[in-house]
């Protein structure tokens, strides 16, 4: 770089002291005309006779990047430029706007972390951002924020560019060959070549897979005009190779798609793909990054100009978070998908009676894992079973669970008391075991005492099912989910949980059968004792002798398993209905509730001032450490409601839901084509800064205060989904969480060294922490 600076200084000297802007000189072996004369420059650049690049400097670039448009000789350039032009057509560039907006949001987030009254060098961050942009828009490679590969590739390209400058200077003396002695230069080229080749091979593999299915899918795709490009949209779509591309994405062809197509048509060599890819990635990311950084430097040096620009931008974009595209159309494997975080579209979709089927792309594997169930069943089965199961989640039934919730609270308090030792502990497993115990007792009538090995084993096996089902969802997008049955761990986990549920059902059936035998002898005695009979108002389903058997077991309103068995006897439920609904309710209730409770404790540990305010509220309602919560007391814990809601906003137990379009359907102003999968990203909806304000990515329960939680926010908060297919266990979850969290906060103070900004999530059906923060527990007085 010092050589380049010296060269620039010499050029400045020549122009200054020769007092002219065109000079002739020898530089090494090359006669050179050096000019900054506008007329000469215009004539030279406009001449069809002067299209070859200057060998004195471009030979080095050609060697570094194996060729490419920037440095190639005229015959090759004229051919390749025409072939590549369509990849930079206006419609293609317009399709990149969501990616540009996403990059804008990422660099804004990065800069927000640097607001500390110190000077920072932003060039590296901008280079990484523009490389991510370039890789995604030209090569179809998505690099998430902080991806180490993107940082490494950026650094290696910078090394190549730095050494290429030295190569240029040496090449004037025809000594460029010396550069191959530098291992850093060789390794950087090797790394970037490999990066590009891997992307190309991956893309070729995808198109090859898609081409195999052309025969079967061609007719289906032709019948759905919304997912085919017209000739005007893509003038190159004229053979079967192009249909393969359409099965991957609807968007106009980006550079790599166009290059591979030309390679298959033998209009591009393999080296053409490599060289053009290399030069486009390197040139686009480096020049764009330099330009953006230079603009920021200039604006920082001229605050009055920066202020004028700010005023212009403010007029066009009054909101800070502008034009983030919250609805995308794409192909994912075999499925045309509409991915959205737009509250208007989401509200219309979830309320539509035409869109009650769940998205097959993600719910089919869950249906297979749990043998069906309300969450995943198709609309005809769901509409029947939901009505039949609803009474098991009525308010009177939920109120009867309060003693169980309080008992679980006392158990987890005792467990935490054993961990008061000034060390950080992972509480998730203990919380999962507790919530599984609650779920088994409240829905299946199965009491599991503290430390019961079966409850630990069942919790572990359900977690395994969730983990492997997530993989199955990804594979199902390519219709390869059958592979999951090859994994014995997955099969064994399903077998264990199925057996557990079946044993509970058989045990329950056995009890009711024994009770029925004694009905004749006990019926009159029970009728005379009103304490052991439910009134018609308490249980509208008590209308035959079978129900009397249930009364001999418990006085409380029917829990789920009692209701399911009654429906089975009435032939309104099949045996598989009992198994699938039981499986789903146990699996979903314990996992999602545990995740929410643990997430709330983590958030409170990271925000001690919020935890203190919540403690004071709990202390007012429960002055004694040992208490049994009642409904009227829970209603007083309004800040706890805000804390739970804020936790579910930032870390929703289920981060994505979906609907399957069975026929062309108009909802509001939108028309959804048949067989489209509508996927709703709850995680992104809950973090939109245009809805939740500038602190959308921060933990702040005030988001749910009366003055902040308005109509717009209500439409954009769906942790339990919305509409007729919302979560049947919504109130069940809220009651149990409030009782358990109030008990824990009343008795303990939670701390952690884990930083909020380091939280990363992964999806295993339920949202999980990629790294689970440990919690340090201190006893409260």
Written overview of the protein:
With 781 residues, this protein is α+β, with helices and mostly antiparallel strands. The protein has a four-stranded mixed sheet, with helices on both faces. A three-stranded antiparallel sheet has the order 5-13-10. The protein has a two-stranded antiparallel ribbon with strand order 1-2. Strand 3 and strand 4 form a beta hairpin. Helix 27 crosses helix 33. The longest helix is centred in the middle third of the chain and has 32 residues. The protein is elongated, with a radius of gyration of 33 Å. The relative contact order is 0.09. About 9% of the residues have low confidence.
Jot down its keywords.
33 helices, 781 residues, 13 strands, alpha+beta, 58% helix, 3-stranded antiparallel β-sheet
By secondary-structure content and strand pairing, the structural class works out as: alpha+beta
Overall outline? elongated
Helix content: 55-70%
Strand order, biggest sheet?
3-4-9-6
Let me know the average pLDDT: 83
- Strand count: 13
Strand content: 5-15%
Helix tally? 33
Uncertain parts:
213-252, 526-556
Give the biggest beta sheet. 4 strands, mixed
The radius of gyration over CA amounts to 33 Å
Give the N-to-C terminal Cα separation: 65 Å
Could you outline the blueprint of secondary structure elements for this entry?
Blueprint: H1 2-18, E1 22-27, E2 30-35, H2 38-46, H3 55-65, H4 74-84, H5 90-95, H6 97-112, H7 123-139, H8 148-171, H9 183-212, H10 214-222, H11 240-246, H12 255-264, H13 270-301, H14 303-316, E3 327-332, E4 335-340, H15 343-351, H16 360-370, H17 379-389, H18 395-399, H19 402-417, E5 424-425, H20 428-444, H21 453-476, H22 488-517, H23 519-527, H24 545-551, H25 560-569, H26 575-606, H27 608-621, H28 631-634, H29 638-650, E6 656-660, E7 665-667, E8 670-672, E9 677-681, H30 682-685, H31 689-692, H32 711-715, H33 730-747, E10 748-751, E11 761-764, E12 766-769, E13 775-779
Parallel strand pairs: 4-9
Antiparallel strand pairs: 1-2, 3-4, 5-13, 6-9, 7-8, 10-13, 11-12
Helix pairs in contact: 3-8, 6-7, 7-8, 7-13, 8-9, 9-11, 9-13, 12-13, 16-21, 19-20, 19-33, 20-21, 20-26, 21-22, 22-24, 22-26, 25-26, 26-29, 26-33, 27-33
């Amino acid at each position: 770089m010092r050589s380049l600076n010296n060269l620039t200084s010499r050029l400045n000297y020549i122009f200054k002291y020769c007092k002219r802007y065109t000079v002739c000189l020898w530089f090494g072996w090359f006669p050179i005309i050096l000019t900054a004369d506008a007329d000469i420059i215009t004539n030279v650049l406009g001449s069809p006779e002067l299209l070859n690049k200057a060998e004195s400097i471009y030979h080095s670039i050609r060697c570094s990047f194996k060729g490419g448009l920037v440095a190639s000789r005229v015959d090759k350039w004229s051919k390749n430029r025409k072939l590549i032009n369509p990849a930079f057509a206006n419609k293609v560039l317009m399709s990149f706007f969501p990616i540009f907006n996403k990059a804008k949001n990422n660099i804004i987030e990065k800069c927000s972390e640097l607001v500390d009254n110190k000077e920072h060098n932003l060039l590296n961050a901008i280079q990484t951002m523009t490389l991510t942009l370039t890789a995604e828009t030209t090569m179809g490679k998505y690099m998430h924020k902080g991806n180490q590969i993107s940082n490494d590739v950026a650094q290696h390209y910078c090394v190549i560019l730095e050494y290429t400058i030295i190569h240029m200077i040496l090449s004037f003396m025809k000594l460029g060959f010396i550069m191959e002695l530098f291992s850093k230069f060789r390794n950087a080229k090797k790394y970037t070549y490999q990066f590009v080749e891997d992307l190309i091979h991956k893309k070729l593999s995808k198109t090859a897979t898609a081409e195999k299915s052309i025969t079967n899918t061609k007719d289906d795709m032709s019948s759905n005009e919304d997912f085919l490009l017209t000739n005007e949209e893509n003038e190159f779509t004229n053979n079967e190779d192009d249909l393969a591309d359409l099965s991957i994405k609807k968007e106009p062809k980006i550079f790599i798609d166009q290059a591979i197509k030309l390679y298959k048509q033998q209009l591009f060599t393999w080296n053409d793909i490599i060289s053009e890819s290399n030069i486009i990635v390197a040139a686009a990311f480096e020049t764009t990054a330099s330009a953006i950084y230079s603009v920021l430097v200039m604006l920082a040096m001229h605050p009055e100009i920066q202020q004028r620009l700010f005023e212009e931008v403010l007029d066009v974009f009054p909101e800070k978070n502008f034009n983030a595209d919250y609805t995308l159309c794409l192909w994912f494997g075999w499925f045309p998908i509409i991915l959205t975080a737009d509250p208007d579209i989401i509200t219309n979709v979830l309320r539509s009676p035409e869109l009650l089927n769940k998205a097959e792309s993600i719910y089919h594997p869950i249906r297979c894992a749990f043998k069906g169930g309300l969450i995943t069943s198709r609309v005809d089965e769901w509409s029947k079973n939901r009505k039949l199961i609803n009474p098991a989640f009525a308010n009177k039934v939920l109120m009867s669970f309060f003693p169980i919730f309080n008992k679980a609270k006392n158990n987890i308090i005792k467990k935490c008391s054993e961990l008061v030792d000034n060390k950080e502990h992972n509480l998730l497993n203990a919380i999962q075991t507790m919530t599984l115990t609650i779920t088994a007792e409240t829905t299946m009538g199965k009491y599991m005492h503290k430390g019961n090995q079966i409850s630990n084993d069942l919790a572990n096996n359900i977690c395994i099912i969730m983990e492997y089902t997530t993989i199955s969802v990804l594979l199902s997008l390519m219709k390869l989910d059958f592979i999951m049955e090859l994994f014995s761990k997955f099969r064994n986990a399903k077998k264990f949980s199925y057996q557990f549920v079946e044993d509970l059902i058989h045990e329950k059936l056995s009890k009711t059968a024994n009770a029925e035998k004694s009905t004749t002898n006990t019926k009159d005695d029970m009728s005379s004792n009103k304490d052991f009979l439910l009134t018609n108002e308490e249980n509208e389903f008590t209308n035959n002798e079978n129900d009397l058997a249930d009364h001999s077991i418990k006085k409380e309103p029917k829990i789920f398993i009692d209701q399911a068995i009654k429906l089975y006897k009435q032939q309104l439920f099949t045996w598989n209905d009992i198994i699938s609904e039981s499986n789903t309710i146990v699996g979903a209730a314990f996992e999602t509730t545990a995740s929410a409770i643990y997430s709330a404790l983590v958030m409170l540990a990271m925000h001690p001032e919020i935890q203190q305010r919540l403690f004071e509220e709990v202390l007012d309602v429960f002055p004694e450490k040992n208490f049994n919560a009642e409904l009227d007391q829970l209603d007083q814990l309004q800040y706890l409601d805000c804390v739970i809601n804020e936790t579910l906003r930032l870390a929703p137990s289920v981060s994505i839901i979906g609907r399957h379009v069975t026929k062309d359907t108009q909802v509001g102003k939108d028309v959804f084509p048949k067989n489209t999968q509508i996927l709703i990203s709850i995680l992104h909806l809950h973090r939109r800064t245009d809805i939740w304000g500038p602190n959308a990515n921060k933990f702040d329960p005030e988001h749910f205060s009366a003055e902040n939680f308005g109509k717009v926010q209500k439409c954009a908060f769906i942790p339990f989904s919305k509409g007729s297919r919302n979560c049947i266990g919504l109130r069940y979850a809220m009651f149990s969480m409030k009782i358990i969290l109030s008990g824990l906060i009343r008795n303990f103070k939670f701390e952690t060294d884990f930083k909020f900004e380091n939280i990363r999530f992964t999806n295993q059906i339920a949202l999980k922490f990629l790294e689970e923060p440990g919690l340090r527990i201190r006893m409260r007085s």
